[in-house]
Amino acid sequence: MPLPDGMAELAAVLPAAVAYGIHDRLTQMAKAHADAGANQASGGLDQRTTAQRTTGQRTIDQLRADLLSELLLRGAPAAHDTPDGLLAAITARVDVTVPVLTLIDEGATGDAVDPASGTAAAVTAAQVPAELDGRHPIDPATARILAGQATAWNRVLTDPITGGVLAVDRYRPGEDLKRLLAARDSRCRFPGCGIKARELDLDHTHDAALGGTTESANLAGLCRRHHTLKHHSWWKIQQTGAGALEWTSPTGRRHTDRPPIPATSISSFANKPPPF
User: Fold this and answer.
1) What's the rounded Cα separation, in Å, for the pair 108 and 119?
2) Each residue of 14-32: pLDDT tens digit?
3) pTM of the predicted structure, to 2 decimals
4) What pLDDT, in 10s, does the model give residues 166-198?
5) Is residue 274 part of a domain?
6) Residue 245: inside a domain
7) Interval 27-66: pLDDT, tens
8) Structural domain includes residue 80
9) Number of other residues whose CB lies within 10 A of the CB of residue 98
């Protein structure tokens, strides 16, 4: 059930023995975690009361909630799993909608905590909040954590006036597109660079945050050095078709780099016997 301040309530009706057993186990785990952290910090026994024990400013109640979240999100059902571990392989999925400017904003005035790992992240005060499953607001820091951990996520382009959906695409290329680009860009596409494809980043020529699409006509393989150069220098780049890249240097000079031509034939002398 949704609650204010980006929270929600999850309840379960269980047999009393099971419910009290769960609470007791979580309490023991929380105390053990708090004691271990306190002993490590002080080098001796912790003399505070249970209610005062904290680990990284987390109280016992907060630790119980952290541990419950982690066990439910990452634990495996010992008594009900299939022989091949099918249930243990199932991972949680949530849908998050977050404005791109909120996603890339690095300014911060507060902290949010990832419930599974306890990792803190910064929150910016004047940001448009993200939405969980299209109906529940969450803070931008949590949204950035979820987006950063996702293997892939879709970008929804909306009309700035009406808010209507105009298009949907995926920021991270799929496996088929990755294979196509690895075959096309067998080396870094900066003029004169010969670093091989396995060490390249797939870069959006026209920045995805500014509307660039995730397709072969807007992606190119760059080594990390020239990927950084493209984003943090006066070098400019555009695609002119058929995978060709036009680079413009800080002095205004233009360089065209075309995709390497793969070997598609074998020379006639390949079938001749060796001269020895």
Assistant:
1) 15
2) 999 999 999 999 999 999 9
3) 0.46
4) 666 666 777 888 888 888 998 999 999 989 877
5) no
6) yes
7) 999 999 888 877 766 655 445 444 444 445 789 999 999 9
8) no
9) 22
Please state the φ and ψ torsions of residue 225, each to the nearest 5 degrees: -60, -50
The domain in which residue 227 lies consists of 175-257
Q: What's the mean pLDDT when you consider all of the chain?
A: 77
SS (H, E, C) the chain: CEECCCEECCCCCCCHHHHHHHHHHHHHHHHHHHHHHHHHHHCCCCCCCHHHCCCCCCCHHHHHHHHHHHHHHHCCCCCCCCCCCCCCCCCCCCCEECCHHHHHCCCCCEEEECCCCCCEEEECCCCCCEEECCCEEECHHHHHHHHHHCCCCEEEEECCCCCCEEEEEECCCCHHHHHHHHHHCCECCCCCCCCEHHHEEEEECCCHHHCCCCCHHHEEEEEHHHHHHHHHCCCEEEEEECCEEEEECCCCCEEEECCCCCCCCCCHHHHCCCCC
